[in-house]
Amino acid sequence: MTTFGIAEWFGHDFLSLDPTARQRLARVALGSDRSEPCPYRGGTCSKAGGVCSIREYDDDGTGRIDTATAGPMVITCPNRFEQDQMLVHWLAEITGLTEGVKMAREVPFMIARSGKPAGKIDLVVATDNQELRWFGLEVQAVYFSGDAMAPEFRHLQTDEETTPPYPQGRRHPDWRSSTAKRLMPQLQAKVPTLRRWASRIAVAVDAVLFEEAMGGASTNPSHDVDSGDVIWLVSELRDGELRRRHWEVLTLEESCDRLLAAHPIGRVDFETHLRSMLRAIPTGTMHD
């Protein structure tokens, strides 16, 4: 039996923490101790519970994590992508922004009828020398579903064994909520305008999401920025570092097809399934 549990916690490798450190971070996560700094973006950690990433674990047969079979890390906090501004430097390199590279955060992009910002671009990477050249950068961490984390934190607050306990709850990454439900509408709203402005948007995701939710790298990935609308920056966590894994350029349409990862079933199959679900409507009293 496997389930997902904490991989990185307030910037620390969970499997490397001793019981005392786990107990202290559990108190922080439960709000009974002072907050921890974010080592990736700076300032105080703003992620409820402080879980930077999760990974799949096996039970070693004693109620403890089998550390030898731990799965790859899946990023759950967008600030985890900020480490050393690797993504900003990578995007600047890909797009030929070489001198005087700057960035801006949460730049208003859509305005509501009230005049207030209704949508923002996470980051904009630019050079403002003789002319302004810029590219948007959206960051998509993974949502996870399942049992609440508070019981997990309470258990860790009292656990004193050297090897961390096997996760108390059942939880898993919610790929569809992270991509088709959240990211795809963002791209559909922003890319057409950026296309008219002759600019591009980049999307940063981790390697596990890219593989599980989008099918992984294309057979012949394009590295021509002018060949599409979306620059996909795929990174992975290794030895506590955010590292480059893969990049490619896709059109908006190709991106949405990959994000949707589903297609309508045939009419015959739909109607067969429908017939099996139909139930008579209960007879009741008619009311005007």
Q: Any idea of the CATH topology of the largest domain?
A: Trna Endonuclease, Chain: A, domain 1
Instruction: Give the overall form.
Output: globular
Q: In oligomeric terms, what are we looking at?
A: single chain
Label the structural class.
alpha+beta
Order of helices and strands: EEHEEHEEEEHEHEHEEHH
Report mean pLDDT, rounded to a whole number: 93
**What is the count of DSSP helices, taking H or I runs of 4+ residues?**
7
Distance between the termini: 56 Å
Q: Give start-end ranges of low-pLDDT stretches.
A: none
Strand elements, count: 12
Biggest sheet architecture: 6 strands, mixed
Return Rg in Å.
Answer: 23 Å
Short descriptors:
288 residues; alpha+beta; Trna Endonuclease, Chain: A, domain 1; 2 domains; six-stranded mixed β-sheet
Explained architecture:
The chain is α+β, with helices and mostly antiparallel strands and 288 residues long. The chain folds into two domains: 2-77 and 144-173, no CATH class; 79-140 and 175-260, 3-Layer(aba) Sandwich (Trna Endonuclease, Chain: A, domain 1). 28% of the residues lie in helices and 28% in strands. The chain has seven helices and twelve strands. The protein has helices spanning 19-29, 86-95, 150-158, 175-196, 207-214, 252-260, 267-277; strands spanning 2-9, 12-13, 51-58, 74-75, 101-111, 117-128, 132-139, 144-146, 171-173, 201-206, 230-238, 241-250. The strands form three sheets. It has a six-stranded mixed sheet, sandwiched between helices. A hairpin with a 5-residue loop joins strand 5 and strand 6 (117-128). The longest helix is centred in the middle third of the chain and has 22 residues, at 175-196. The radius of gyration is 23 Å and the shape is globular. The mean pLDDT is 93.
